[in-house]
Design brief:
Length: 456
């Protein structure tokens, strides 16, 4: 018996250091490197990382794309979704110590979208927000989880060249401390309503090429770096510790429906001329899922009904000998997006279109634009409305059944003003000292729940 007790005590003593190492550790500075802007402007499609750490919305999406409370504790609808009421979480303060009120939220939301808001009116009523609309708003709680509706206030005007312009004071787990030479510094908000984050500080270094990011990670100068989908295999071959999302970004070609492409047959010809297989296999190294539908099959089950086949003969037939004037194509993002744009240009030239990729002096309103749209919600109805709003279609999605959603998608896609191409994942490489890192449903790192391993 004494021997068993001694052995048990020995095993327990050996296990204690292991369990201590697994507990989250407060402190340290996390260094993140990206190739884009560290503090993107409101509405930027490539934003999300820094702003979601500084600001909160009334609602939020968790890592699985399910809707959760945030600054609003609960909500309810009336009058067949024409009226929604949201009850604010009590005791929430901004980083400057001011109290979150319904009036501040009303002003922030009104300023975020102006005339393009998914509601007609929003009013503060006591500690609640009341949204009303001439049309039903069945998806409003999910829409309010989007980056466009994060709640922030502007800092006092400062002569400091490192100060951030626009709203920069939020209620989130980190507060913006400065932006200098492409480096955004965020410090922990010890009074955050969600609890203090584990990191003391996060530094987001912008405009760093991916090759330099990987080098910095390998020598310990970075903790979290980007892995573009087309370089996922290369990262794995280099034995980087990679964390990847499900396919969560829709690569699509936006097509103008006026001017040179006002003829619907020309837009239909463009849709048939694009070779999705080449984009997937050559440019994105088979890391994307080819699609001709807006929503992925895992959400609806009907994506296979939209043909992804290229038909160059039919494209020529639809063009019918028409020779539209030279067209311009723009592409947001890095090298792979530019290569994809060049590949699409070759496809369209084979169909008889004269297309050029616009350079840095791109026209404000191009004929064609290669864009990426984020899929955050796991609810098809809300996800579809969010995607459509991302390309300027503000009509509410009232259909909820697969048949109704398919009909709505078909009617919209038959206009050929948006041509879905691929669904792509987002991926990041992480240093060995980062613990408990997860990705949001659209592939953005959830840094408020991660920590650094304690120094030995």
């Amino acid at each position: 018996m004494l021997a068993r007790i001694a052995i048990s005590c020995l095993l327990l003593s050996l296990a204690l250091p292991v369990s201590a190492r697994t507990r989250p550790h407060y402190g340290g500075t996390l260094r993140v490197e990206i190739d884009g802007e560290p503090w993107p402007q409101v509405g930027a499609k490539s934003g999300g990382l820094a702003r979601r750490l500084v600001f909160d919305g009334l609602t939020r999406m968790d890592a699985d794309g399910a809707l959760q409370p945030a600054l609003a504790l609960r909500w309810a609808s009336e009058n067949n979704d024409h009226r929604w009421q949201f009850w604010l979480r009590p005791g929430v303060h901004f980083h400057d110590g001011s109290v979150l009120t319904a009036s501040i939220v009303e002003a922030a939301l009104t300023g975020s979208c102006g005339a393009a808001c998914p509601w007609t009116d929003v009013h503060a009523v006591g500690t609640t927000l009341v949204f009303t609309s001439d049309s039903p708003m069945p998806n409003l709680p999910a829409l309010l989880a989007g980056d466009d509706f994060l709640i922030g206030i502007a800092a006092p005007v400062s002569s400091d060249p490192n100060s951030i312009t626009g709203p920069s004071i939020g209620t989130g787990p980190f507060q913006a401390a400065g932006l200098s030479n492409g480096i955004l510094t965020l410090v922990a908000n010890g009074a955050c309503w969600q609890g203090r984050p584990f990191f003391d500080k996060i530094e987001i270094h912008g405009y760093v090429p991916v090759r330099d990011q990987w080098l910095d990670l390998s020598v310990g100068r970075a903790d979290l770096v980007e892995v573009p989908p087309e370089q996922l295999r290369q990262a794995q071959q280099q034995r980087l510790a990679v964390i990847s999302s499900r396919p969560a970004q829709l690569l699509a070609l936006a097509v103008a429906d006026s001017g040179a492409l006002g003829n619907p047959n020309l837009r239909a010809a463009i849709a048939l001329a694009v070779d999705r297989g080449a984009l997937s296999n050559v440019i994105f190294q088979k890391q994307g899922e080819i699609t001709a539908s807006l929503l992925p099959s895992e959400l609806t089950g009907y994506a296979f009904l939209f043909s992804t086949d290229r038909d160059l003969n039919k494209a020529h037939e639809l063009r019918g000998g028409l020779a539209p004037p030279p067209l311009t194509l723009t592409a947001e993002g890095g090298a792979a997006m530019q290569l994809a744009a060049q590949r699409i240009v070759l496809n369209l030239r084979e169909a008889g279109f004269n297309v050029q990729v616009a350079g840095n002096s791109a026209p404000q309103h191009a004929d064609l634009a290669l864009v990426r749209l984020s899929l955050r919600s796991n609810q098809p109805q809300a996800a579809l409305e969010s995607l459509l709003r991302g390309v300027g279609v503000a009509n509410p999605v009232l259909e909820s059944t697969p048949a109704g959603l398919y009909k709505l998608e078909r009617e919209f896609l038959d206009t050929h003003t948006l041509i879905p191409l691929l669904y792509l994942p987002r991926a990041w490489a992480v240093s060995s000292r980062v613990r408990d890192l997860r990705l949001s449903s659209d592939g953005v790192p959830l840094l408020d729940g991660a920590s650094l391993e304690a120094a030995p």
